[in-house]
């Protein structure tokens, strides 16, 4: 299988990024018991497993844990990032642009750029959120957490915030 967006017929892989000959010790582990970066007021949390900055802008991976009560964003899309949702445990309702589907452990929803999507979960369900390329989603998650704890934002500030974070709501 070749990557559809590269033209090299000999390999089908993207161009080399690493140009050394021996490899290097550059891998790192984020232990599972690392502190959660965000605890939401409604009981959920977000853990930064791999940020866009850590991956050189290639990928962002976050572990999203819901609280007891249902929460999550309504239908929206992104113009510059693709997103994937992988349910780790529990049940999560995922919107695929056509309707809400119940997903359980092991289910994956992939959303290319422009794809309408949303998610809702509760009962302490957990999932991975993955973004490519790895944009700076941390400010987005942290600002939402502060709004949930009572911070405020004007309607104009909210529009600017959503545009800055490539989030376009669907009515």
TrEMBL record:
Gene3D superfamilies attached to this UniProt entry: Jelly Rolls
Record InterPro entries: Cupin_2, QDO-like, RmlC-like_jellyroll, RmlC_Cupin_sf
Membrane spanning stretches: none
Superkingdom of the organism of origin: Bacteria
Classification via SUPFAM superfamilies: RmlC-like cupins
Domain Cupin type-2: 65-128
A Pfam family assignment: Cupin_2
Listed name of the protein: Cupin domain-containing protein
